[in-house]
């Protein structure tokens, strides 16, 4: 099993799985955190993200949780591609393989495409959280560093080190996105915990006056939720979303499903735009258009022959 040793894997290092026998070559590092490091690796012509765990228990829990998710009918069903151990310089490393996802950070996406995209992004992120919650987990460590934005505002979560089974103590968090940090609730794995972090993420992203920074400098005994509420109420950018954000900060959503429905409705009222929903009707539309085209061509041929 993995120890707390943090391996330095140079470019070109090859790791071969002891149990599954698959070989991966290190391309470069992608990042590291409290419970592991993530590397860009390749196997043949394909590229993947490899996470090497530092703590054996944390790593195994993350693997078990991802294995559980892989059995669900969600967008996470193909996230875990491989899990194995490998030898490196006389030490055994535990790792798992994920898809390599390219995209932009949340802040860069908003700077590039405009702040109105926050409505679409928020909707897509809440859908992801809802899938996790239905599967019995909360994400736990929701923050901008753990998001990748792709085309049309689609959102991918890329680190599941903080994922925690509902009802347990949150196992990993980042202070400014944690409701305990703001004296706004306990660090218990429940849907409202993720929704609080979601609200702080939106506030931090839309904070045009940089009002967030002074609040972070307050002493712990002086820090409270009213500081976040004041930022929301005084922000022109957040005016349309203020009712949603204040509810989330005060843990007043019964579930993430309710939060998603309210977010979509609030977004439409705020900007008069329709936030995308799941395109379950897309195959029906394609079939309808195909049949219509066939009928049209048949009619043309009929009149031409006639």
UniProtKB/TrEMBL annotation:
Q: Where is the Protein kinase domain?
A: 24-306
Determine the domain of life of the protein's source: Bacteria
Q: What is its EC number?
A: 2.7.11.1
Which residues of the sequence carry a binding annotation for ATP? 51
Give me the reactions it catalyses. L-seryl-[protein] + ATP = O-phospho-L-seryl-[protein] + ADP + H(+); L-threonyl-[protein] + ATP = O-phospho-L-threonyl-[protein] + ADP + H(+)
**Pfam families (alphabetical):** Pkinase (PF00069)
Mind listing the UniProt keywords for this protein, alphabetically? Answer: ATP-binding, Kinase, Membrane, Nucleotide-binding, Serine/threonine-protein kinase, Transferase, Transmembrane, Transmembrane helix
Where does this protein come from, organism-wise?
Paenibacillus chitinolyticus
Looking at the UniProt entry, the stretches that span the membrane are 285-305
Q: Which InterPro entries match?
A: Kinase-like_dom_sf (IPR011009), Prot_kinase_dom (IPR000719), Protein_kinase_ATP_BS (IPR017441), Ser/Thr_kinase_AS (IPR008271), Ser_Thr_kinase_AGC (IPR050236)
Q: One MF term in GO for this entry?
A: protein serine/threonine kinase activity
| Protein name per UniProt | non-specific serine/threonine protein kinase
EC class name? transferase
Does Translocase appear among the keywords?
no
